[in-house]
Amino acid sequence: MGRKLLTEHINVEGIDTFEVYRKHGGYRSVEKALKTMTPEEVVEEVKKSGLRGRGGAGFPTGMKWSFLAKPEGVPRYLVCNADESEPGTFKDRQLMAKLPHLLIEGMITGSYALGARTSYIYIRGELLYVLRILEKAIAEAYAAGFLGENILGSGYSLDLHVHPGAGAYICGEETALLESLEGKRGNPRNKPPFPAVQGLYARPTVVNNVETIAAVPVIVNEGGDEYAKIGVGKSTGTKLISACGHLNKPGIYEIELGVPVEEFIYSDEYCGGIWKGRDLKAVVAGGSSVPILPKELILKTAAGENRLMTYESLSDGGFVTGTMLGSGGFIAMDETTCIVKNTWNFSRFYHHESCGQCSPCREGTGWLEKVLHRLEHGHGSMHDIDLIVSVAKQIEGNTICPLGEAAAWPVAAAVRHFRHEFEWHVTNPKEATMPGAAYRGAAVLA
Amino acid sequence: MAKITFDGIEVEVPDGTTILNAARQIGGGVVPPAMCYYTPLKGTGGKCRACLVRVAAGSAKDPRPMPKLVASCITTVQDGMVVENTTSQQVMDVRKGIVEMLLINHPLDCPVCDQAGECDLQDFAFEHGVSTTRYEEERRTFEKIDIGPLIQLHMTRCILCYRCVYTADQLTPERVHGVLGRGDASEIGTYIENIIDNEFSGNVIDVCPVGALTDKTFRFKQRVWFTKPVNAHRECENEKCCGRVTLWYKGKDVLRVTARKDQYGEVKEWICNTCRFDKKETSDWVLEGPAHINRASVISQNHYELPVVNPQVILDLPESTTRELERNPPLRLGGING
Predict the structure, then answer these.
(1) Cross-referenced SUPFAM superfamilies, in alphabetical order (chain A) (predicted)?
(2) Contact across the interface for B48 and A367, Cβ inside 8 Å
């Protein structure tokens, strides 16, 4: 049974209220940090913990915090990125809905460490019910003296605001989020300058994911070294995985980083195997934007070892076989899944969500979707398969923000690993829309 | 100062200069194309990705190459930086791809487009594109939108460079238009089909790299290569207007008035709508002489620009030549009356 650091009390009745949360040890990190530690010491603990950003990129949090421009006297901000909307990723909303005070506690401790006097939680507009929960919890924290002027008599003051976005996927990109927070159209900014130098209102800003900030209280309470003992290598601590697709027990699981993928899929502690006793076909391990991997590659490394759920191990095979842990959106697909249809579906999403600012993404995502639509509906040609690979290559790495990669990777990986299925769709146009038929057909062809 | 190597050519530029502007100091064919960057407008650049270059060495201190191609218009130089533009096959391939992307929804209606002959995309496609397209899907088209009596918005041709949006934001007192929609459904538009109406709105025509925003008072009157550009000025009542323009003549008629542009097609100083749309008589202006046109431009067709002689050189010329020059000065108006 893996340790639960964030979700230990998630099922306690009334844990979303200040009283119950406090009874279960809530806000200890605020007391400890504000009364016994300097901001630099808090940053140092986070560095020691090896905590990596849980939003998808996996950048070391302590290092990100230490990049914040040093000059005193100018406002600086901590912004929580709660705009979770990657298909397959749904962990943060549950964390916020069930444990709002954990996030608030992390925001207070993190803001203290960074010297922020005003902090924001930028939440996806559709999550209105979560917004209400957070607002209620923030009001409770103000009433209890954990927010506002002179918190716990320490001399440190903090205002915390929740800001709903309008529901655009691109606003999950940190600079687009900041633009949106400033009241502008949510277009990503060119980097550099990075937010740590010029962020919100052109001031030094750190943008962290909900889960990342929620881990801060644990790190401050237990110490960075203790936290770093959990996990494997540079992937320390625990991670929330939102598992969905053809699994017996889809849901949100907190795993200790390093759990073998096979154990995660088949053990009763986690997903309990593939539904209806079917065979696993493919997995998207970190949200829809990361490359899809077939069963053979997701379960074993090239060396024949079980792949581990860590940031490094999922990409250890290099570009040919690699994928990423990303945001932890784990989508399992059984043997009946039509990969072409699935790829088209992902592509539709990225086409719809491209902000349209830079040419390769604006035009390329639409092009990909249209060709995939043709292939899926039996009007494609063999040339189209090479075409989508080429267009994906034209997008990848050439855009302002990572949405270009998010649109290109799933397509490129799907063709790389399941080309025979795309070809089957071309040679069997009348049956192209039948889920499962493509896979079985491919098996016959093979 | 920072010393960088651009396509094997060393150039020294002030700190904070962008790679693109460093390349412009070298000039010629090594300069990356720019569809969205516009020097006089703050915040432009980085969108069209036409100017992507490879940074083979970040700086003398950290000579590691940058992992991705970078937009040269927004990336500042570092001392010791090594940049590859035309010398990198990767850059050339990507540029070809960018032309293809930009032409997906841009109609090839150059024969009837007023921007033909002075269109940045036309030049970009000619230099970096291929003659065929792989795009077989339905293309984006738009209904005509009326945005006022002076400017024609032809959205079908728009490549979403955002230049006109920045122009409106930075030159005009009120924001009257912007980008609506997302992705390839984005479009330039006004709030509920409003009109663009303020004293400097005409400048959006000059900054548009393609034929999406054109001058309604000039549309379909003449191909630009049959006109003769002449620099002129007047005392403009609008204190924000520089009053320095280029008049585009056909015979003795002024068909169009634009702001003056530099060699990269960027406006040097902004002009007001009165100068642009209302002053179309030669008598309104003090003529200075023919505007310089790049020899490679189609506008240089039928454009008789005589050499400008350095006054210092005249002093050393034989007396007979000096007398001849006095009789037929190089920048005489007779040279541009077609």
Answers:
(1) Nqo1 FMN-binding domain-like, Nqo1 middle domain-like, Nqo1C-terminal domain-like
(2) no
